Amino acid sequence: MNNIKKDLQDIYQEPRQEDNGKQEESREYYFNPEDRTISPVVPENQEEISAIKKPKNSHKKIWITLLVLGLLVIGGFAGYEVYKNLTMSGAGGRSLGDIFINIKGPEEIISAAPAEYRFVLENKKQAALKEVELVLRFPKDFYYNSSNPQPQSLSERSPASGREELDGGLSPIPPISPQSPLFQRYVWAFPLIKPGEKIEIKVIGRMFGKVGDKKTITAELFYRLENFSSEFKEMISFTGEVTEDLIALEIEGPEKALANQEAEYVVTLSQVLIEDSSQENQLTQVGIDCVVGVDCNQPLLKDLKIFIEYPEGFELNQVSPLPKQGEGEEYWEIDSGSLGPPSGSLGPLTQAIQEIKIIGILSGESGTYKELKVRAGFDLDGGFRLPFGHELKVEWQTQESFLTLLLEPKLGLDLQVNNLSLPVYAADWGEKIRYALAYKNSGDLDVSDIILRLDFTGDLIVDWGSFSCGGKECEVMLSKHGLIQGIIWRKEQIKSLAKLEAGRSGEIDFSIALIDKPPAPDGENYHLRAQIIAQAELVDFNQSFEAMSEESDIRIKTEIKLNAEARYFTDEYLKIGSGPLPPRVGETTIYRIFWELENTSNAVKDVLVSTVLPDWMGWPDEVQVSVGEIIYDEGLGQVVWSIPEVKAYAGQTEGEIRESHFQDRAQANFEVSLTPRLNQQGQYVVLTQETSCSGTDSFTEQEVSARQGYLTTDLDYDLGAMGKGVVE
After folding, report:
1. Residue 41 pLDDT more than 70?
2. DSSP letters of 353-403?
3. What is the pLDDT of residues 164-188, one digit of tens each?
4. Average pLDDT of 27-50?
5. Which residue has the higher pLDDT, 339 or 618?
C-alpha cells in the first residue's frame, strides 16, 4: 500500500476550463486508506499555492489524468480489502473479501483417535492469486498420519518463495510418512490459484491430550495478487476440546480378599467406537474404520502397549495371554488391529478388544490394601515419545488402579494342660490331665458353623474310662479298633459355635487320666499329642477356612532312683573291708561305699551324684566305676560321680529288663576310712552325709533328681556286719 500511496502522491491533475472561461488552479491529490477517500493536498501557506500553478495543456491530457486517477482509486479500495488481516476461531470459515478460507475438524476430540481436518481455500476474485503458501500450525502433541495433497515442506516457509525467512530460517524437507517424527508446521505451496478455483487439503492424524485440554490449529495464508508486488497475509484458527479417550481400561477384581488365598483380576481394554460422518459442514471424527488417507495396513492400535504392575507380595500363578518381555518389564501388545463401528451406531460406544486374566496369591497383613496398576499408551515411532521426536517423560494415554483390602480370618485356638499353655507338659504316670480348650474370633470377619475337633496322636497311655466332657455333650471319634482318637464339638452341642462374631470367645473344659505304668516293659519316650482343628464358614465370603492350635505334647517323665550303701561284707559274706569291726577308738577301719542308679523310660543326661565326707573320715583313693568318673575334693571333703548319660531302664531289677539292659547299668564304689575319736566311743559314726543325684530328662528336658540320707557305721544292708556298728 505504501507503493500505492506514493504513486498517488506523485499525480498532478490538469486544470479544466469552467463555463465562465476562468481557469482553476492545479492541485495535488492523495488516497487515504483509512476512510478510502481522495483529498486534495492543502499547502501550508499561500506562497506554496501560487507555486503550483497548472501549466497550459490540452483537454486530451486532462481526460487521460482523470482516467488514471479513477483506476488508482478502484485499485486502492481492492487492495485495502485484501490487506486487512482477519482472525477467527471455531468451525466454519470466513469470506475475506473475495477470498474464502475455512477449517473443519472435530470440536470434541477423542484423544489418540485418528481425525480428519479439512482446509478449504477458494479464490472468488476476478484476479488470480500467485505465490500462494498455506502454513498449518498443529499442537505439539498432534501425530501426523497423512494428508492429501502432501505438504511441500515441514518448515516455517517454503524456500522457493525467495522471501524473508521467519522464525530463524528453514529446515531441510524430510520425507513425509505416517511414522515420521512430528513437526509443528506444515507448508503447502501453490504457484497460482485462478479466479473461481477451490483448493481443499485433508490432513489425517491423531491428537493426544488429557480430557479438558483445548487444542488449536492455525492456518496462515501468504499470497500476492496478480499485477501487485505487495505480499498479503491472512490467518484463521480452529479450536477443539479433548472430551474422551480412544481407549479405556477397566479392572475387575475382589474389593476384599483373604490373605494367602488365590485372587483373580481381569483387565479389559476397550476402544471407543464413533460413527464416521463425512457429510458437508459436519465435524468429522474418524473412528475405528479406515478412511481416505489412512493406511489401512497400519492398524489403529498397533502401537498400543499395556503394562501391569502387580501388588506388593503378589505371587503370580497364571496370566493369559502371556506378556512380551521388554527392557526391564513385561508388556502386552494389541495385535487385533482396528475394529469397525457397529452397524447402526448413533454415537460414542465402546467395544472390548483385549482382556488379560491374572490369577495369583495375595499375601500381607490383614487390614492392608493391595494395589494393581495398569497403564496403556502408544509407542509412537518405536519408543514411548511425545510428538516432534522430543524425548520427554512418558505421558500415558490412560492408567487405572484397583485396590483390594486384604483380610485374614483369625480364629484363635489355645489348648491348656492343667492351667498351663506349654508346648510340652511333663507328666507322671497315673496323673490326671485337665484340658481347657479356648477359642476366640480375633479377626475382623464374622464366622459361622464352627466345628471343633480335638485330635489325639501318640502312645496309648490314656485311661479312656476316666474321660469327661466337662458337663457338655460331645462326639467321640473311634479308631477301627474301637479306641478313641478324638473329640468333636458342633453348634448343636455348643450354641456359640453357630455364629461367632468378631471379638467373641468361648471355652470348653474336659479331662482324662494317664495309665499308671508303661504299656510295654521297656518302651521309651512315651507321649500323647493333642491339637485343636477348627472348620468354619466366612459370612461375607461364602467360603470356608481352617484354623488350628499349636500342638500340645504330654510327655511322660522318667524316674531315676539312687541306691547308696556302706558295706564291710558282700551278700556272700566275703570281706571287702578291713580293720576292727566293731570299730575301736584310735584304730582305723576301712568301709566300702556303693552307689547305683536305677532309671525308667527316658535316658538322663549330665548326671551328677555327690556326697560330703565328715572331717574325721579319710580318703584311701580306691575307686571303681562302670560309667563316668569319681573325683574327690580334699579341701571340701566332697565326692562327685559325673556321668554323661544314664540309659533308659539302667539298673532295673526285674529279670528280663535287667538282662536286656545289664550293659547299661550305672554303678560305682569307693573306700572310706574311719579312725574313731574318744568322744565317739559308744556311738554310731557318720560315714557320709546325704547323697544326692541330679540330671536332665533327655525326652522331656525336665530336671530329675533323687537323694538318700546319711550312711553310718550301722550297716543295715550288710548281714555280716549287723550289730557291729557302735564304736568300742
Report:
1. no
2. EEEEEEEEEE-S-TT-EEEEEEEEEE-GGGSS--GGG-------SEEEEEE
3. 333 333 233 333 333 333 346 788 9
4. 44
5. 618
How many angstroms separate the CA atoms of 603 and 158, rounded? 104
Task: Tell me the pairing of strands 629-633 and 330-333.
Answer: unpaired
Cα separation values, 122 from 84, 218, 224, 312, 471, Å: 17, 17, 15, 62, 104
Question: With pLDDT > 90 as the criterion, what percentage of the chain qualifies?
Answer: 31
User: Rounded distance, CA 244 to CA 236, Å?
Assistant: 26
Question: Position 719: which residue type?
Answer: L
Neighbours of 196 (CB within 10 A): 11
The per-residue pLDDT for range 680-691, each reduced to its tens digit, is 999 999 999 999
Q: Which of 681, 459, 397, 709 is nearest to 563 (CA)?
A: 709
| DSSP SS3 for 710 | coil
More confident residue, 53 or 148: 148
414/106 Cα distance (integer angstroms): 70
At 521, list the grid cell: 516293659
Distance CA 152, CA 132 (A): 12
**Alpha carbons 665 and 285: distance in angstroms, whole number:** 102
Main-chain dihedrals φ then ψ at residue 366, nearest 5 degrees: -65, 140
- Residues 90, 203: Cα–Cα separation, whole Å: 17
pTM, to two decimals: 0.51
Nearest to 143 by CA among 310, 316, 303, 367: 303
End-to-end C-alpha distance for the chain, whole angstroms: 161
Cis peptide before 614 (omega within 30 of 0): no
Name the one residue in this structure whose C-alpha cell is 510418512: 177
Please give the torsion angle defined by the CA atoms of residues 212, 216, 217 and 223, in that order, rounded to the nearest 10 degrees: 170
- The grid coordinates listed for 641 are 560321680
Per-residue pLDDT tens over the stretch 358-413: 999 999 888 899 999 998 877 655 444 333 333 333 446 788 999 999 888 888 99
Of residues 309, 289, 98, 283, the one with CA closest to residue 195: 98
User: Are 317 and 363 within 8 A, CB to CB?
Assistant: no
Q: Count of CB atoms within 10 A of residue 615's CB?
A: 6
